[in-house]
Amino acid sequence: MLGLMQSQPLLISGLIEFAERHHGDAEIVSRRVEGDLHRYNYKDMGQRARRVAKALDGLKLAFGDRVATLAWNGYRHLELYYGVSGSGRVLHTINPRLHPDQIAWIANHAEDQVLCFDLSFLPLVQAVHARCPTIKHYIALCGADKLPADSGVPNLQSYESWIGAQSADYAWPSFDENTASSMCYTSGTTGNPKAALYSHRSSTLHAYAAALPDVMCISARDAILPVVPMFHVNAWGIPYSAALTGAKLVFPGPALDGKSIYELIEAEKVTYAAGVPTVWQMLLTHMKPAGLKFSTLKRTVIGGSACPPAMIHAFREDYGVEVLHAWGMTEMSPLGTLCTLKNKHDALPEAEKMKIRLKQGRAIYGVDMKIVDAHGDELPWDGKVFGDLHVKGPWIVREYFKGEGGDPLVGGWFPTGDVGTIDPDGYLQITDRSKDVIKSGGEWISSIDIENIAVAHPAVAMAACIGVAHPKWDERPIIAVVKKPGMEVTRDELIRFYDGKTAKWQIPDDVVFVDAIPLGATGKMLKTRLRELLKDYKLPQP
Ligand code: AMP
């Protein structure tokens, strides 16, 4: 017997319709590429998103056609999020930090028809357009007055004149909730990039779950600053969760330096911010010497890479801001786990609570996870045994776009490529990417643990731990370190710094000081590149 409830597809257009009707005056504030602050509300946004939908009809774009963006976090990008997906086309957010060859490759693979870009990325567009034959229309996200003359980019028009020519009289179409809504290519280090293709249903369910109190805890009382880019995994779904709750949105545009972010947080009374550790490092580095404090910021979600304990401490102890450590990936829309304590942890001493906060957290309803050994057998949740982490759920990929890379699932589960432990309370701790784990004398050493200790040293700005071949132990860890400007630490001092902080056999055999650690397009350390750079490195003789 079927239930007798109304059947209404979960569509992205439903989120903006809700926000317009129930939170129409909630603000959306954006720092623009032009440098000024733009300010309007959900009602205005909904109207302009409808104009986008009509303008796409005007270009004769078919249902399911891809519309690409190369853009910062801002209101025009948000209008594209809703206008493109809401009208049944697929929003393809491209990471502008990728190499132009990769951008051309993925635009061709996605068969993008339209490319909308912030003017900061004009040189990139000029470099790739000749190699992107599927793109028929280029839209610069600016007014007609800012449109560059003689850009060399074909069929270029300004966003404002493009949507300005349309009326907002548009009814969002209804269709199957499993229809594709947006796509994002993964920053895989081997093989061609592969795209996760999100659906209206997966994005809406993810937006619901992300807003829950034990997840991002987003409400109409919040002013949210997503520093995490809209060009990578839909800014962790915040543009959707914010509309679903009516939260104020504050977009940083291209100004991601510590000073600009601090000023925006204070001026717009931000209560809640989300970003990767490198961005927060820049913010703390700006605030500390000037003795600055936050007046409204309460919580920050940090994910994308392991959040160093020193950062969680600094936010909590020095600034009274709660850090929520999150883990996820492009293939998971992206949220998988988030770290909040349970009721029973209230009575624990502060140091014990902190040990939990450093973990990546508990699974969100909708995500099931397990750790397995090399034979695929499930491992116990004892917080000690490491295993390959597998996940499943309604916002996790089943297959990549165009079947790229074949069937990724193993017995219905998606292997994340991450390695971790799960404790009896269900808290996941990521110890490594499986290809980065260091295998020494049959034991595994977590490179993240070794890096976290190094960055707790006052003179260390950044650290990356890799394994190097060893005749007796197979592999031994070494640590590549970038010193803070004007600070000194020697190899022996840093090695001694590990005493008592980890098992003796896990202490790195050597320290290599470097000027910089190579980073990928999403700000993660590129250990493959680091290994190449250190290929002639030899371990010291005992
Ligand atoms: P991406 O698909 O580019 O977002 O990268 C996802 C990968 O980033 C994951 O598979 C992890 O390896 C890593 N990652 C994300 N969040 C965390 C975290 N909190 N701690 C450690 N690694 C993380």
- Compute the number of strand runs: 25
CATH fourth-tier homologous superfamily of the domain at 8-199: ANL, N-terminal domain
Unreliable residue runs: none
Present as ligands are: adenosine monophosphate
Overall helicity: 25-40%
* Strand arrangement across the biggest beta sheet: 2-1-11-10-12-13-14-15-16-20-19-18-17
The first-level CATH class name of the domain at 8-199 = Alpha Beta
Helix and strand content put the structural class at: alpha/beta
Question: What is the count of DSSP helices, taking H or I runs of 4+ residues?
Answer: 16
The proportion of residues in beta strands is: 15-25%
Detailed description of the structure:
There is one protein chain. This protein is of the alpha/beta class and 542 residues long. Among the domains are: 8-199, ANL, N-terminal domain (Rossmann fold), CATH 3.40.50; 446-533, ANL, C-terminal domain (GMP Synthetase, Chain A, domain 3, 2-Layer Sandwich). Helices cover 28% and strands 24% of the residues. The protein contains 16 helices and 25 strands. The strands form four sheets. The protein has a 13-stranded mixed beta sheet with strand order 2-1-11-10-12-13-14-15-16-20-19-18-17, with helices on both faces. The chain has a seven-stranded mixed beta sheet with strand order 7-6-5-3-4-8-9, sandwiched between helices. It has a three-stranded mixed beta sheet with strand order 23-24-25, sandwiched between helices. Helix 12 (309-319) links the parallel strand 13 (299-302) and strand 14 (322-328). Helix 7 crosses helix 9 (238-245) and helix 10 (258-267) packs across helix 11. The longest helix has 17 residues, at 42-58. The N and C termini lie far apart (74 Å). The relative contact order is 0.09. The mean pLDDT is 95. Adenosine monophosphate binds at residues 186-187, 233, 303-306, 325-330, 334, 360, 416-418, 430, 433, 522.
